[in-house]
């Protein structure tokens, strides 16, 4: 496939794109034929011309080519450009790694460990303070099942293989050998289905998340911990990076998550991590052949070796190997306990299973201490040390699983329990204070409400079974297995107490020791109204002894804040400002209660869902709201983009750590800036929300336009998740899940959730003040930069062609005209604020990367439009559907943060 002549980020990137594009072009000629190759090239050229010459001059040739495409050619074209987008992403990620190395050599960036420590030093903070902070820190990327990852695992595996071969090519004296491998992988990728033909089930999502944990995080997270321990001279510093997961525990709107799914969410990663430990211990046994007659050993090691069931005469004088045989046997015995399956290579003799990862670590520490005490520091940083660090980070559970459910479900279940027990016939009819009084009384009483002899609603039995499975998981895997139960749609303090009552029913909350409850109820404030009510809701919750006792025992109250629903509710600017203000308000409440605040940021990949640079996002948080503790959701295609390759994953984990250190110890002047510019920001927020809601919720026919001018209906058929795209059968925007809402606007290249309303809000404002805000205030600067990035990926010329799909062209003209006018206003406002002549004028590297990508994304948009038009006209050929889904796949891959 030919490559674009747009400027590339660097020469190597251009070379690799040309290499991969050339290989793909050769494969298309051989596998698809010269005619398909020629049609792909013709559409690419016409797409570029259309973009450069919008209107009749540019569209005539493109329309002719699209109309002449046979169905097979259209599908082949979509497949070809989608594959190229995937390959171009590999080259781009590698270019990012090279830039990071160059920048590190020239001077550390602030989002690196070296850069962060230098910034702290410049601010007068010490290494000791950094060490103390990280020793008690919690930095947790949480991998969710939210469905915006359109790529199959098979495709992700091929991408990883291509990246590995390019790495090998860099180090090879005979690159043609790797080129042969690259060609082979390109053939496989070309011949691999890019879209799923069947829907995902929860186990599929569990397997996908575990594949990232096993392939990337098991290697990267311990290495990152060891690296920071060395920098801070803190060899025993506790892990601060804790990987979290929602898959199998998040049942909000997903009827497929049940008790069996929760059990699988623990058994599947346990298999992976125990297999890793067994292999590591086996390798250590092969390595540590030290003889007891030639090497001094500690008494503890001698006791461990002597207590081993390994009676092989070949290892009689090899205490380390005998100790490792015992460790292996105990791990092997632990495997069936935690997974229900025999270990892949069972030990040759019986042993007691480990009661928990602490016992396993203690045995490993005996070996490590003996080696370092008797042979020095050459054993201080070896494979055994890395294995111990891995156990520190992952235990036997690998990732801490969050539970999540909607508050309406909890209310119904509690109401059912009360009704059957004869406590209250109609809990739903009670006002908030009456609910709280009833819940408090029950939480103080020792009796249980549930009776095994009574009849309950199926929903009640299902929720109880899930919490019983959670109790089992905590017993098997320890307290880090589940820490939090998130309550979606929180709007009252009773929402939290309902969770504690349900936990009481399965023995996790005990009235005589509420502080020992292992799971904390965490409110999720999602809509604009919920965010505004967050402070009084949390204040009221802390008046309840039960909730306060759990928080006091931890010293921390976690609160989740939602980016996507607040954005869908009120615009990007309004969402961002309301999240900022809610965070400040929540901090004041927790501080007044003598607690620390732990914010859990429900970010997505797209700017409209809180996306953008994680480092910049952390630094833009209000002063005091980070304080060494932050959790952030990672989902969909963002997981693969940020954590799909070890070097990239390491950079992102280090960036999160660097941002947390700086935001905690040398924060930007957010408090001062809020006092100085908060009134302006608030006024902008009000105006933006008014403009946004006037279009989305108050314009007649807007829903019809949205459903016709975006591929929302087609996205519903894309098998990217185990949950439905909408919360109900309603067609209303309010009931649509945020992910398909954002993904639809991304596909149609409008990107509305990431910018609409800002241009109108800025009209008539003091531009000098806005310019100062962008220079001085990280919060506002990050907001503007994120909008600038998403607008650079938008394309109103292509969006106009999507508008042609609307049956009522008068309606289309009206609404598209409003979109175009607001886009123009927003672009002009951004340029005026930044002082640039073009979008991304101040970020040339990002500008080049986007320009490199777009010539291969735009043809996919055009093919998608043509195939949607055919399908909506009645062509129900399965190939039409396949072509549409391929195009959606390719556009999402090319935009990289689409959902």
UniProtKB/TrEMBL annotation:
<feature type="active site">
    <location>
        <position position="568"/>
    </location>
</feature>
<dbReference type="InterPro" id="IPR021135">
    <property type="entry name" value="PEP_COase"/>
</dbReference>
<dbReference type="InterPro" id="IPR022805">
    <property type="entry name" value="PEP_COase_bac/pln-type"/>
</dbReference>
<keyword id="KW-0460">Magnesium</keyword>
<dbReference type="Pfam" id="PF00311">
    <property type="entry name" value="PEPcase"/>
</dbReference>
<comment type="similarity">
    <text>Belongs to the PEPCase type 1 family.</text>
</comment>
<keyword id="KW-0456">Lyase</keyword>
<keyword id="KW-0120">Carbon dioxide fixation</keyword>
<dbReference type="GO" id="GO:0008964">
    <property type="term" value="F:phosphoenolpyruvate carboxylase activity"/>
</dbReference>
<comment type="subunit">
    <text>Homotetramer.</text>
</comment>
<protein>
    <recommendedName>
        <fullName>Phosphoenolpyruvate carboxylase</fullName>
        <ecNumber>4.1.1.31</ecNumber>
    </recommendedName>
</protein>
<feature type="active site">
    <location>
        <position position="146"/>
    </location>
</feature>
<dbReference type="InterPro" id="IPR015813">
    <property type="entry name" value="Pyrv/PenolPyrv_kinase-like_dom"/>
</dbReference>
<comment type="function">
    <text>Forms oxaloacetate, a four-carbon dicarboxylic acid source for the tricarboxylic acid cycle.</text>
</comment>
């Amino acid at each position: 496939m030919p490559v674009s002549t747009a400027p590339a980020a660097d020469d190597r990137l251009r070379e690799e794109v040309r290499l991969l594009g050339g290989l793909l072009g050769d494969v298309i000629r051989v596998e698809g034929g010269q005619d398909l190759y020629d049609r792909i090239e013709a559409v690419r050229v016409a797409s570029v011309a259309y973009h450069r010459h919008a209107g009749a001059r540019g569209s005539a040739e493109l329309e002719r080519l699209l109309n002449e495409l046979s169905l097979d050619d259209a599908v082949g074209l979509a497949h070809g450009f989608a594959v190229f987008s995937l390959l171009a992403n590999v080259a781009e990620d590698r270019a990012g790694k090279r830039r990071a190395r160059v920048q590190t050599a020239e001077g550390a960036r602030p989002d690196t460990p070296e850069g962060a420590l230098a910034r702290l030093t410049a601010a007068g903070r010490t290494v000791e303070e950094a060490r103390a902070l990280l020793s008690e820190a919690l930095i947790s990327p949480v991998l969710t099942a939210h469905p915006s990852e359109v790529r199959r695992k098979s495709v992700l595996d091929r991408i990883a293989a291509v990246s590995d071969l390019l790495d090998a090519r860099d180090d090879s004296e005979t690159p043609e050998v790797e080129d042969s491998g690259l060609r082979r992988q390109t053939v496989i990728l070309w011949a691999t289905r890019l879209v799923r033909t069947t829907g995902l089930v929860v186990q599929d999502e569990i397997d996908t998340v575990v594949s990232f944990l096993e392939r990337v995080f098991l290697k990267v997270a311990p290495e990152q911990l060891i690296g920071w321990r060395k920098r801070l001279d803190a060899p025993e510093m506790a892990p601060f990076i804790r990987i979290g997961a929602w898959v199998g525990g998040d049942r909000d709107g997903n009827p497929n998550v049940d008790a069996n799914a929760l059990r699988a969410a623990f058994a599947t990663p346990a298999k992976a991590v125990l297999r890793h430990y067994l292999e590591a211990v086996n390798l250590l046994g092969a390595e540590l052949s030290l003889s007891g007659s030639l090497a001094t050993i500690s008494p503890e090691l001698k006791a461990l070796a002597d207590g081993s069931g390994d009676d092989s005469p070949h290892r009689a004088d090899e205490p380390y190997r005998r100790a490792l045989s015992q460790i292996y046997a105990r791990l092997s015995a632990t495997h069936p306990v935690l997974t229900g399956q025999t270990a892949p290579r069972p030990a040759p003799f019986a042993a007691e299973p480990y009661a928990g990862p602490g016992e396993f670590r203690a045995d490993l520490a005996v070996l490590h201490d003996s080696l370092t005490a008797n042979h020095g520091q050459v054993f201080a940083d070896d494979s055994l040390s890395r294995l111990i660090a891995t156990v520190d980070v992952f235990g036997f559970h690998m990732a801490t699983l969050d539970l999540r459910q909607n508050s309406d479900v909890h209310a119904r279940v509690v109401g059912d329990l009360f009704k059957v027990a004869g406590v209250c016939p109609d809990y739903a009819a009670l006002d908030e204070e009456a609910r709280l009084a009833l819940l408090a009384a029950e939480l103080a009483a020792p009796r249980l409400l549930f009776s095994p002899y009574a009849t309950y609603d199926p929903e009640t039995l299902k929720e109880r079974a899930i919490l019983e499975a959670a109790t089992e998981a905590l017993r098997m895997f320890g307290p880090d297995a589940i820490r939090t139960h998130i309550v979606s749609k929180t709007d009252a303090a009773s929402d939290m107490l309902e969770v504690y009552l349900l936990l009481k029913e399965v023995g996790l909350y005990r009235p005589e020791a509420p502080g020992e409850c292992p799971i904390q109820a965490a409110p999720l404030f999602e809509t604009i109204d919920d965010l505004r009510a967050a402070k009084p809701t949390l204040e009221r919750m802390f008046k309840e002894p039960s909730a306060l006792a759990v928080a006091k025992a931890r010293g921390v109250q976690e609160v989740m804040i939602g980016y996507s629903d607040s954005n869908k509710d009120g615009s990007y600017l309004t969402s961002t400002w309301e999240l900022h203000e809610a965070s400040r308000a929540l901090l004041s409440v927790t501080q007044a209660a003598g607690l620390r605040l732990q914010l859990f940021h429900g970010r997505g990949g797209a700017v409209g869902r809180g996306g953008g640079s994680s480092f910049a996002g952390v630094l833009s948080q209000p002063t005091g709201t980070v304080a060494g503790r932050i959790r952030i959701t990672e989902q969909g295609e963002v997981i693969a983009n940020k954590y799909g390759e070890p070097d990239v994953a390491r950079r992102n984990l280090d960036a999160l750590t660097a941002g947390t250190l700086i935001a905690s110890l040398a924060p930007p002047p957010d408090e001062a800036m809020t006092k100085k510019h908060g009134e302006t920001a608030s006024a902008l927020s009000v105006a933006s929300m008014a403009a946004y809601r006037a279009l989305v919720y108050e314009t007649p026919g807007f829903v019809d336009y949205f459903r016709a001018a975006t591929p929302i209906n087609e996205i519903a058929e894309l098998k990217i998740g185990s949950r439905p795209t909408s919360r109900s059968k309603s067609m209303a925007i309010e009931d649509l899940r945020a992910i398909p809402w954002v993904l639809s606007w991304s596909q149609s290249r409008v990107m509305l959730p990431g910018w609409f309303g800002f241009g109108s809000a800025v009209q008539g404002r003091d531009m000098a003040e806005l310019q100062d805000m962008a220079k001085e205030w990280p919060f506002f600067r990050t907001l503007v930069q994120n909008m600038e990035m998403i607008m650079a990926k938008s394309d109103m010329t292509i969006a106009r062609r999507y508008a042609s799909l609307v049956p009522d062209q008068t309606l289309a003209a009206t609404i598209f005209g409003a979109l175009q006018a607001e886009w123009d206003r927003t672009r002009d406002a951004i340029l005026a604020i930044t002082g640039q002549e073009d979008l991304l004028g101040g970020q040339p590297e990002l500008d080049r990367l986007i320009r490199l990508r777009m010539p291969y994304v735009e043809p996919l948009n055009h093919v998608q439009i043509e195939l949607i038009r055919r399908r909506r006209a009645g062509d129900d050929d399965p190939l039409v559907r396949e072509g549409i889904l391929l195009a959606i796949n390719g556009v999402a891959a090319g935009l990289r943060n689409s959902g």
